[in-house]
Write a structure and sequence with these properties.
The protein is of the alpha/beta class. It has one domain: TIM Barrel (Alpha-Beta Barrel), CATH 3.20.20.140. The strands form two sheets. It has a four-stranded parallel β-sheet with strand order 1-2-3-4. A four-stranded parallel β-sheet has the order 5-6-7-8. Helix 5 packs parallel to helix 7 and helix 8 packs parallel to helix 9. The longest helix is centred in the middle third of the chain and has 19 residues. The model has no long low-confidence stretch (mean pLDDT about 100). Bound molecules: 6-chloro-9H-purine and zinc ion.
């Protein structure tokens, strides 16, 4: 089954590229940029990845990405991930990035875009790996800042496939970003948002009603609202679920307690994704494998999950037809 799951063509819809920064590359980039890290070794970094909740993770996530300075750094980060992803049978990656988290450190938008898009072109050429880029806004920062980033991004719209919403969810409802997402829509950008990870089911509702998103990232707390579940099912709104992430951030206590089987039984359009693979203990394949171990799903179930992601990915129709 492990080999079969590895060979199954998989699509990744929920990946924070900054969360793919492995400790080895963190050290290499720190040295290249003359930055000293608060860790003595790669093992010490990994030992620090013991989280209580989303915020305790985000603190280390923002600290870790401080080694990213130049376009080459962003390029090397993405290449390092694409190489691992294609080796585990991933055929399409939608990477999100957090421009505000770098702008606030003095790293220009152009620097970020140059590095990431160069890596994306390389992945297509070298591995036949297709990619899409999602520009995410930090929901724990003011909406005005997100609007300013969107303005900065306007010369690059051809290179951006969608906008997203991430970072600390509790207390930062989608309604805060209604104007920003309306502007993104008027620019022709598709929209996705994290909702119902740590936040309540009402945030998923808001993301649909006020941000007009076509996908929900996480969304596992939809089960607290049966009307919402019916709506998500009827409209077949995709949920990009990240099981290992949910365990590591204590959204669920153990993988056996994860609501994935219930979400599937409810007829929802579920996909499996890695979120922040360097921090949560594995990539897309590991997320498939942990589900196989915990839930004993058969091959047709995994085929249908993989197909769901192909169906809703931001990719050229010709490419989709080849994969379906
Ligand atoms: C994130 Cl797991 C998760 N949730 C919200 N924001 C994020 N940024 C990176 N990973
Ligand atoms: Zn996420």
């Amino acid at each position: 089954m492990k080999d079969w799951l590895k060979d199954l063509p998989k699509v990744e819809l929920h990946l924070h590229i900054e969360g793919s920064l492995e400790p080895e590359l963190m050290f290499a980039l720190a040295e290249r940029n003359g930055i000293s890290l608060p860790y003595a070794s790669v093992d010490e970094v990994r030992a620090a990845y013991d989280f209580n909740d989303l915020q305790s993770f985000l603190n280390l996530y923002y600290q870790g990405m401080a080694v990213l300075r130049t376009a080459d750094d962003f390029h090397d980060l993405a290449i390092d991930y694409f190489r691992r992803a294609q080796a585990e049978g991933v055929v399409h990656v939608e990477l999100s990035f957090d421009p505000q988290a770098h702008l606030s450190r003095g790293i220009g938008f152009d620097v970020q875009m140059e590095g990431l898009t160069r890596a994306m072109r390389h992945a297509e050429r070298e591995w036949g790996l297709s990619t899409a880029l999602i520009m995410s806004f930090l929901r724990d920062q003011p909406a005005e800042d997100a609007l300013a980033v969107l303005e900065q991004a306007e010369p690059y719209l051809e290179l951006i496939d969608a906008v997203g919403l991430d970072s600390a969810e509790s207390g930062n409802p989608p309604s805060k970003f209604a104007e920003v997402f309306a502007r993104a829509k008027s620019l022709g950008l598709p929209r996705v948002a994290h909702a119902g990870e740590e936040g309540p089911a009402s945030y998923i509702r808001e993301a649909l009603n006020l941000l007009d998103v076509c996908r929900i990232d996480h969304g596992v707390r939809c089960l607290e609202d049966s009307d919402l579940v019916a709506r998500l099912r009827d409209a077949q709104i995709p949920l990009t679920v990240c099981p290992l992430s949910n365990v590591r951030l204590k959204v669920v206590e153990r993988i056996q307690d994860h609501p994935l089987p219930t979400l599937l039984e409810a007829g929802l359009k579920i996909t499996l994704n890695s979120d922040d693979p360097a921090y949560f203990g594995g990539g897309v394949l590991d997320n498939y494998l942990v589900c196989e171990q915990a839930f004993g799903w058969d091959r047709p179930t995994f085929v249908s999950l993989a197909r769901n992601a192909i169906e809703v990915a931001f990719m050229e129709e010709g490419r989709r037809q080849v994969l379906l």
